């Protein structure tokens, strides 16, 4: 299992940081799950080692523009791929309407089968009940869309035992209905004890793979090998927690205990705590507190305000035309968050330092194209 961060900026894409998107290579298959699809995601995919036609499922955390404005374009591009046969999109109520309206008004048609699973928020999300009711009424007439009601505890079991994993959606606190996704890998087979086999005077051969799968094997010389003698107990699969924008994701705690990786947004640094909360966002303190409460094995921070440059950007800015880049960064129209002032001296290192002051767990800054392989359990 491998995470590839395609876009890690909040609010808007910029020359140095793409809008939100994250790809997961699912273990044991060639399938890719995509989490959010901000503007420019398809270009980021082309710049990465990810093959777009391998995407089988897209999960949308919430409907703010910096998380969905790349979707119509990506779907149209995928439409020209002969290997695309179907795609399922999971996300909040309204996702299907956004896609279908955009495709209809732009006279675009998809060549593959595109299905939707929309999550109906509950009172936790504080959404207007009339909006929910009218949208559900519309949905019932649509065969390509399944709607699911989030439970009282703010969770929903979206996928069971597909691609060797299950996926849960959990409500988290932002300014609009927003979900975190928990990916739980199926249990893994136990470790094969090849040393014990050799100590029994048996030469390893093709029969080992059958033994690993739990089969009893009879050798040519008549000896019978039982898997329980050479294969250890099965190991719990890996658990990944991928959060959307949030100022409070404590709802995920029961589902995220001892997760192998927690991907948490970190839009602002700790000195801007109030601003972060006002806009439904997080700081290093908020992210590390959740990592502690979940006993997470690793914390990956993303969704940075464009104020926080990566070090490589600072270096390239000094070589390239810095003034030009700064002019380009100043964008006024805002689909999600507040406009940030540009400050060339601030880098994501500030966020990392603040996080490391609050936790001794491994913490990483996920810049664009940062790749993290989730280690197998020991
Ligand atoms: Zn955002
Ligand atoms: Zn947002």
TrEMBL record:
SUPFAM superfamilies: Metallo-hydrolase/oxidoreductase (SSF56281). The keyword Disulfide bond does not apply. One of its GO terms (molecular function) is 3'-tRNA processing endoribonuclease activity. InterPro entries: RibonucZ/Hydroxyglut_hydro (IPR036866), RNase_Z/BN (IPR013471). Residues 315-345 are annotated as: Disordered. Residues 334-345 have a biased composition (Acidic residues). Homodimer. PANTHER family: ZINC PHOSPHODIESTERASE ELAC PROTEIN 1. This is Uncharacterized protein. It comes from Rotaria sordida.
């Amino acid at each position: 299992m491998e995470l590839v961060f395609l876009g890690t900026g909040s609010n808007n894409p910029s020359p140095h940081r793409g809008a939100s998107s994250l790809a997961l290579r699912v273990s044991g298959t060639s399938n890719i799950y995509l989490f959010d699809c901000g503007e420019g995601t398809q270009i980021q995919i082309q710049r990465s080692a990810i093959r777009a036609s391998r995407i089988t499922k897209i999960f949308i955390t919430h409907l703010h523009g910096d998380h969905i404005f790349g979707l119509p374009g990506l779907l149209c591009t995928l439409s020209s791929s002969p290997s695309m046969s179907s795609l399922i999109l999971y996300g909040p109520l309204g996702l299907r309407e956004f896609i279908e309206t955009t495709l209809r008004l732009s006279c675009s048609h998809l060549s593959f089968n595109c299905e939707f699973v929309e999550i109906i928020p509950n009172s936790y999300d504080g959404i207007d009940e009339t909006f929910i009711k009218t949208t559900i009424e519309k949905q019932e007439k649509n065969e390509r869309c399944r709607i699911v009601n989030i439970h009282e505890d703010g969770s929903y079991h979206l996928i069971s035992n597909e691609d060797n994993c299950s996926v849960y959606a959990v409500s988290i606190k932002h300014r609009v209905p927003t979900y975190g996704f928990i990916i739980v890998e199926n249990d893994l087979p136990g470790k094969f004890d090849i040393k014990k086999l050799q100590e029994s005077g048996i030469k390893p051969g093709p029969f080992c793979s059958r033994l690993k799968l739990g089969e009893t094997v009879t050798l040519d010389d008549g000896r019978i090998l039982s898997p329980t003698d050479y294969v250890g107990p099965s190991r719990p699969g890996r658990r990944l927690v991928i959060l959307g924008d949030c100022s409070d994701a404590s709802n995920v705690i029961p589902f995220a205990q001892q997760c192998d990786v927690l991907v948490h947004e970190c839009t602002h640094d700790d000195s801007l705590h109030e601003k972060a909360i006002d806009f439904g966002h997080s700081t290093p303190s908020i992210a590390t507190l959740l990592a502690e409460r979940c006993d997470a094995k690793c914390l990956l921070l993303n969704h940075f305000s464009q104020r926080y440059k990566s070090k490589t950007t600072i270096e390239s800015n000094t070589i390239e035309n810095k003034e030009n880049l700064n002019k380009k960064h100043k964008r006024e129209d805002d689909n999600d968050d507040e406009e940030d002032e540009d400050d060339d001296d601030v880098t994501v290192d500030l966020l990392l330092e603040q996080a490391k002051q609050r936790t001794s767990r491994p913490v990483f800054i996920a810049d664009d194209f940062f790749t993290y392989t989730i280690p197998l359990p020991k």
